[in-house]
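2024-03-11 09:14:02 DEBUG pipeline.ingest accepted 1 chain
2024-03-11 09:14:02 DEBUG pipeline.ingest length=412
2024-03-11 09:14:03 DEBUG pipeline.predict start
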Amino acid sequence: MSSGRGSLALIYGIEPSDVEFILEWTLVSALVITVLGVVVLRLLATRSVRVMVLGVVLVSALTSMAGVAVIARRMLPGVNQGVVDYLMSIAGLAGIAAALIVGRQLIKASRALSNAVQGVGENGVYIAPDRVLPSELSELSDGLAAAHERLTAARTRERALEASRRELVAWVSHDLRTPLAGLRAMAEALEDQVVIDPRTVNQYHTQIRTEVDRLSTMIDDLFELSRIHAGALRLSRRMVGLEDVVAEVVASAEPLARAKGVRLTGAAVRGMPIYADSAELGRALRNLVTNAIRHTPSDGVVDVLAEVQSGMASVCVSDACGGIPPDDLPRVFDVAFRGESARTPGPEGGGGLGLSIARGIVEAHSGQIAVRNAGPGCQFLVRLPLGHPTTAAAPGTGPQRRRAPARAIPAP
């Protein structure tokens, strides 16, 4: 260390003893002033940014002034020390002035950011300050804007879910009370022997069983929908052929179509493997087909077509319901939406949950579901990812339509 100081002394023409004195006193004064400055800054931690910036500048200025004063006294004894102190004071005041200006700018930027945040409570929208902000505060403003957008989206979803929940409670409570009232009336009539004719008694028994089945179906739908909304739907996926699922759905819906006088047709190309829960996916497609049959008048046609489109398995369910009003199309898959003015469904009607359940199941399979008006009615479109690449049917040689029960037929 002494050799280094000697070399420095030789270079700058400074005596080694002076170098040691200057280094020691400068180090001591800097250490003392820095410790005092840190203590003062800790005490001012809750004060304004302007005060803290001013404290930092004062520590730097005082340290520099102490070093210069020591050098002047040791090496420039002929110089008027008052002049040195005066010059250093001017430099310190200039630093303090700069600190005050910087602190003022920081305070203005901070207050602008604070006013923007407070404005969210007044108008519900975060508007970024129109002034130039330091990079850190600008990043903070961008973060607040992104957080506000996410919060707004979450609140919108929450309001939609709450509205859907209230609507569901209103619809389901009505749909439960109506059949329960009928069941009670028929049970009381049988119990009080108001009805004793064997034929009428048999009709009452049949009607009671029908209403119980409908209530059971509605409860099952509510349970399924609650699992979907809670994210508790567990899928037992395996590789299945979509054509087989479609064939089973069409076959199971044929009795309902025949009873209503609706002609049900279905067709599917072979070679559409999908990784899916066949039971849950079948339930979703069955809900779509049943909904189409219920809204199609007698002598109408419901067509189910499964094929490969754009590298994805596609199922299209077409009906003759007369179309859906454009304003109602976005709400078709909402909970308890029936698109009817009457609140009470028909004898074969459900609780208005089938389409919501279908959407939840399809989306759980990483698929897409949509509806559009087409021809004499509307089309429900379901798109699912294929299990592995397959060759689609050549254009113009698609599957041939057949009367239900549908069978999967190969593409030519």
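2024-03-11 09:14:41 DEBUG pipeline.report Residues 135-191 form the longest helix (57 residues).
2024-03-11 09:14:41 DEBUG pipeline.predict end
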